[in-house]
Amino acid sequence: MFPIRDHNPSGSTPYVTWALIALNVVVFLSYWQLFSDERALRLFFRDWAMIPALVTARGEYAGLFTSMFLHGGLIHLAGNMLFLWIFGDNLEDRMGHLPFLAFYLASGLAAGATQVMGAPGSMVPTVGASGAIAGVMGGYMLLFPRARVDILIIIIFFVRIITIPAALVLLLWFAIQVVAGLGSDPDMGGVAYWAHAGGFVAGIILTLPVFLRLGGPRFWALHDGVPPNPGTRYRFRRTPIPRVGRRR
Predict the structure, then answer these.
(1) Cα 124-125-127 angle, rounded to 5 deg
(2) Residue 192 and which of 33, 55, 181, 242 are 20 to 30 A apart at CA?
(3) What pLDDT digit, counting tens, does each position of 202-247 carry?
(4) What pLDDT is attached to residue 186?
(5) What is the 3-state secondary structure of the chain?
(6) How far, in Å, CA of 38 to CA of 46, rounded?
(7) What is the pLDDT of residue 226?
(8) What is the pTM of this model?
(9) Sheet of 2-6: strands edge to edge?
(10) How does pLDDT run across 61-106, given as a tens digit for each residue?
């Protein structure tokens, strides 16, 4: 089950989302040649990835930031950038360009911190933008729970695209991260499930001020939880009967 697109057009040009995708691709290409030399790649990740034991024992915090722009392979990069492309533009539209950038970075840092708390003594390098992108997914779910998302399902020879609400897709994804995290050994490497879960929760929390500024549950009620018209902004008055006005 893999999201491939949403039915939620953005009302503004997502410059930050594009820039983040471009930056991740450029950084990946800058060390692409190291994948043919396992020792060199290991040393590179030792310097730039996030290693929980080095954060807790030596205070090497820089990796919490730099690891957000590193990936362990082409498929890893492509999958993360697809998720950022699908969900990032709508959040950037609602938050604004610079606030969205700050939100993205804060979600990534929170994801890295969660991974450290889950395995404080691990020497396994953690890389990838997926923690920050998990934050984007959490924020998207809060603002657009009933947005329609197309899901690609492949079961052996069975291939089909179905459309389901964003809340269902994203909550299922989050549940998988938690269950898998509980059943995995972070010292053995593999997927950083706790970074995903931590980023997702951080994204919801960091999006709450935007959600409340838009009117909270009244924002959902106004358009039944589906995406409003692109670029539309709402202002709510604090009266017994909410009155809605549109700013041009």
Answers:
(1) 140
(2) 33
(3) 999 999 999 999 888 888 877 666 666 655 555 544 434 344 444 4
(4) 67
(5) CEEEEECCCCCCCCHHHHHHHHHHHHHHHHCHHHHHCHHHHHHHHHHHCECHHHHHHHCCCHHHHHHHHCCCCHHHHHHHHHHHHHHHHHHHHHHCHHHHHHHHHHHHHHHHHHHHHHCCCCCCCECCCHHHHHHHHHHHHHHCCCCEEEEEEEECCEEEEEEEEHHHHHHHHHHHHHHHHHCCCHHHCCCCHHHHHHHHHHHHHHHHHHHHHHCCHHHHHHHCCCCCCCCCCEEECCCCCCCEEECC
(6) 12
(7) 65
(8) 0.88
(9) 2-6, 148-155, 158-165
(10) 999 999 999 999 999 999 999 999 999 999 999 999 999 999 999 9
* 61: its two tokens: 């915090």
Give the C-alpha separation, 39 to 230, whole Å: 49
* Residue keyed to tokens 């082409």: 74
